[in-house]
Amino acid sequence: MDKVRVLIVDDSALVRKLLSTLLAHDPMIEVVGTAPDPFIAREKIKQLEPDVLTLDVEMPRMDGITFLENLMRLRPMPVVMVSSLTEQGAEVTLRALELGAVDFVTKPASDLADHLADYAEEICAKVKMAARARPRPRSEVRRLEVAPRYSADAVLPRAQGAGTRGGSPIIAIGASTGGTEAIRVILEAMPPDAPPIVVTQHIPAAFSGPFARRMDGCSAMRVTEAVDGQPIQSGHAYIAPGGQHLLVMWDGARYVCRLHDGPLVNRHKPSVDVLFRSVAASVGKVAVAALLTGMGDDGARGLLELSQTGAATLVQDEASSVVWGMPGAAWKLGAAREMLPLDCIPARLLELARQAAAGAPRAALHSNG
Fold first, then answer.
1. Which residues does the Swiss-Prot or TrEMBL record annotate as the active site (predicted)?
2. Which residue segment(s) compose the domain that 233 sits in?
């Protein structure tokens, strides 16, 4: 298998050196060059023909967003953004994902020495994944020591039997890499009176608030970052805050959002498995769940638990996914009753929710997209 050829674009010489060192530790990655600004990067892309670009958000002479917009129009290629953990950095990074960037990593922090192995594994994995991804611009090292991998059991024990206490459907959505845009496609298509939607997207704490606000601006539903104890209502969508697990719980009279500051599950917080398990326990067979594009397998087992309660479950198909890791893992487990292209998912979620509310049987539609 050929090495992934990477070009690093960053105005900081220190960051260029650090990223080069970390990426070079992976035997399947070759750093073919670095560039301090987009103008030099443009020439090096022509000369070196990299497979993947890492791109700083804030640079002199031309900012990363302007360069990315031009790049995706003239020479589309996989790009991993390098972003600061600030509100402005979050807004700019979300815009980059809209324009076609595959994923992002945070800027190396001052305390990176304490988390060097985790950071190295993250950036190497994302660069290798980006090389296999299918970037879709919008039309208008060696194995390192990592933390233990926990399952959803670390946050919420699996229920014996399912709930269906409220009797009304809730739509649960999980996503990771490429998910910010996939979620936008779904929320844009929802009517203002749609069933409540709960969303876990793998995202840092500084990004979830700006992401929720962006989704609120493009959806007829009211989209907010979930708050602990918040009632779950029709016409509303709730985004899991970065750094906290989102659970759906029954408080005796209604469904509410619960936030849990437990350990990482499948190396993520929030975790899709945790959300899906809570929905299986509290909502049961009237739930509707979709697992969208993303790297890894978080959400696959949770989707299986939902399916086993009788809930309607589906996954995004490979052709429309940026990365078919999470939905592919769920499909191979037999956790999903249906597999659909992204554009078909919003209408199908609404149809399944109507059927669940009416108690009608659901016809499984196994599609290869």
1. 176, 202, 298
2. 165-358
